[in-house]
Every structure is written in structure tokens, then in C-alpha cells.
Amino acid sequence: MKIVVIGSVAAGTSVAAKARRNDETAEIVVYESGEDISYSVCGMPYFLGGEVDSVDTLIPRNTQWFKKRFDFDIHTDHHVKAIHPSVKEIEVYNKKEGKGFRETFDKLVLATGSYSLAPSPFSLDTYSNIFHVKSMADTKAIDAYMNQNDIKHVTVVGSGFIGLEMTEQLTEKGMTVAVVELASQVFPKIDPDMAYHIEKKLKDKGVKLHLNDKVQTIEGSGKATVLKTDKGVDIETDMVILAVGVRPNTFLTKETGIKLGETGAVKVDEFMRTSVEDVYAVGDVAESFHRVTGQPIYHPLGSTANKMGRIAGDHMTGGKLSFKGTIGTGIFRLFDLTVGYTGLSAAEAEKSGFDPVVIHNIKPAHATYVGGQNMIIKAVADRETGRFLGAQIVGPEGVDKRIDVFATAITFEANAEDLFHLDLAYAPPFSTTKDPVMYTGMVLENAREQLPVMTPEELINRQKRGDKLQVIDVRSPKQYAKGHVDNAVSIPMPELRKGVADLDRSLPTVVYCNKGVTSNTAQNLLLNIGFKEVYVLSGGNTNFHYYMDAIGN
Asked: Where do the Rhodanese domain residues begin and end (predicted)?
């Protein structure tokens, strides 16, 4: 059997390695259009920022390593121009020798990855200082340009993973960075109230944000020197990083019968097979599906690409591995802040037919008496079934640990209540006695059953509508005086039993403290003495004012 793989980064090399582990007799050939193979795309910003000393660190294996370890050939600088599944042949162009040839196959794997977008008016051909951060060639070009030029002002277009990671690294390198984002918030993958914390961190670090805006025209001859935006802002720049997203590289599928999915990526089954017999697709070129909703999604990540490659290599050599889908987990660092997310947001859950209940949980990553700092957790569960659906976390520490626990829980279809019953590791330097994951499950389950919460957004909207609500601040009078929710009355928790005598027990009532713990006690008390409808303000006064800042009030 002859296996031909097109592409040799995360997915392609995984296919070949797994196929060889299963089958010593197969002939395995890999074609790569670029010079480098099996490199870390995700590590590129950290080299460009100086956190990684050598670019070679990002290229841990070469063609010789794979030949010695797995006995298959990787041909770099070989561009596959066309595939002909009906006759099981591909057309290959050897860029170094300047000649083409045809290659046969029994099994073909598309691991062609994705390509970066360059929206108008940007042109990498016209301007020497505009770059993508997608390939190792891009990284080397940026590094060379920075070494040869005095770069003081950088513009990053787009605020996804790469955009924000490049912003962090170049800011730390001493450059002044401006970020232009078409959406009304940075990092549109998460909810606006959580993205607020990212925006605040960027502003604190001197990053200039241009949100809900786009570059309309470029000034400069050969080099972009001024970017003019739709809002009339002139951004002086020495270098531009384009990070506006990627698209699956499906050009080879044209006129082949290989079907694309709803997302524009190649449609595959659970074994990574395409619609054409003996042709597979893996990595960024392949469509995935969401494990919770079952719907097609496009979620290009190196970890997913490795997984897909292994499954394809296994299946074509008689194995039983299958792809189980993804839940959209992601994480990145921004200076001393970590941002993680997994599963569905409230809006996505509602769109998918769930009835979402949402809570905010502000808890230290570990005991405060040994330096624990607060994380902000926003979590979603299905009101009817209790199924845990998703979480977003922002904080200086402990985010990675919790988001991975949440991702595991979603994968195995845990309910919110199950989170509380997890037997998680505890010691003061690592956690709290009631870990933030456990507390999140407890609050979600309470909110789903008999102890509802109200988000700051919902409270503000109801107040604007003129709904009759009673809002009680159960903190100390000093804390109340420093700042409180509009129209809230101050009744400190120790005085609550007597202090509510003049309140209407039939009206919807919202109670809040600093972060939500004391207000939960207050909620129970009010319900026990006859109040009919009592809500906890999700995340307390702290989260309320975060939200007010986020919407500019």
C-alpha cells in the first residue's frame, strides 16, 4: 500500500507516523510546499517577542529525523498542483529543480492546512512591512525585518489568538502597539463582559485599541506608513501584522468530487474520510463537529490537527480510532492574564435549543492567605436537564487547570451538580477547600433549581424597562457608600432579618454582596421568611461594576 500525504506540519506528520507504527510494509511519502516541516505555529509569536531564543527551537524535527525514526520520505519544496482521485494520481512540482512529475497513490491525505486572510486594502506584495504570522517563512521574514529596521510602532489587525499574542510579545519588546478590530470588542470568541477584562489589560499596558473600525486606505510607497480607518483615525506605523483569521486551504479539491462542508472546510466522517474513496483530510483543511450540538464547526488548532492525523493514519492501516468531535476549548496568555474558554456560550446554547442558565463566579485560584488571586468564571448549564454546557475564565492564575476540568466535564456530559461532587486535589497553595470548579457547579445547580441568579445585564435591562424590583445591598454601609447598584437599599447582612420589615415580599427582589457568597445566604433567608421571588446578582457588586465599565457607564 502506498500512502501519499500532502502537507507536513502538525496533521500530516501525525498521519505518516501513525501509519508507520501500524504498518511496516506501507510505502509512505509526504510532500511539503515549504522548506520547514513539523514546526510550531503557536510558538511563533514567542520567538518574535524574544521569549524563545532560537527559531530552531520551533522546528524540533527535520526530514532526516523522520526518515531514521519512521522510514518514510518527506520531500520539501514540492508543491502539489493537482490531484486526480479517479486515476489515483497527483501532480507535483519540484520547486528546486523546476520540473514537475506525477505520483501515484493508494491512499491520499490532504493536510494542506489553512491560509491567512489579507482583506482590502492590505497587500503583502505591495508593502514590504505587512506580514502574516502563519508559516515559518513568515516568522523568519518578520524577524529579519525587525532586525534590519528601527521598529517603534506596530499595528496589529485582528484580535484573535495570534493578534493578541503578537500584541503582548511586541509590547514586551518595547514597541508601541495599536490593535484594529472590526468587531465591537477584542477577542470576539468570548462574551463581551468577559472580553472587557482583556481590553482593560491592553489599555493598562499602553496598547491603543481601535474597536468597531477597519483600515480603509494605506499611505506609503513600498512601506505602509499610515493606516487610515473608517472612523477617520490615522495610525502611524512601522510594521503591520495581519491576524484577521484563516480559511481552509481547499484549492486542491476543485473538480475532484471532494465535498466541502457547511463551514467551507472539507467534509469528513469520523475516520477523516472525504466523500471520495481512499482520500482523507486532516487538520486545518478538515471540518470538525461540535461534541455538544453535533453541528459542523471549523476549529483550527494544532492539538486538533495532531488528533485528526493520528486517527486517519490509524484507520487507513486497519485501526479502530475515530474522531469524537471538539468542544471549542481554547486558552491564551496576555501579559499576566490568562483567558480560557470551552463549550457553549449562553447565546450559542440558546441557538442550539437549550434553555441556558448563566452564573458568574469570582473566586481565588488558591487560598488567599498564600497569595491566591481571583479568577472570574462565567458558566452555562441547561436549565431543564442540568447538563453543563460551557465556561469562560479570565484571571492571573489557575485558569488552565479549571478550564481543562470544565472541558473534561463537558466531554463526558456531566451535569452542573456533578462538578460539585468532583474529588479535586486540595492544599492551600493549589486550591481552596471548595475549589472554584466545585463552587461553579453548586451555584449553577442552585440557580437552575430554586435559587435563581440575575446577571448585571438582565438587571439593568429590567430597570430600564421600568420593572418593579427591590434591590438590596447586604454589604457594610461603608462599602455601600463607595459604590452600589442604582436604586439599591443598604441593609447589611447582620440586620437583614429586621431590616426588610418595610419591603414588599411579593415583589421580585435582587440581593448582592461583593462577589456573591453572602448574598446567597441572604437569598435563603428572604425566601425562608416569605419573600416570593429572590435573585442573587451574579458575581455581586464586583461583577456589576465590571459590566458597567464594559458598557461604558
From this structure: 465-553
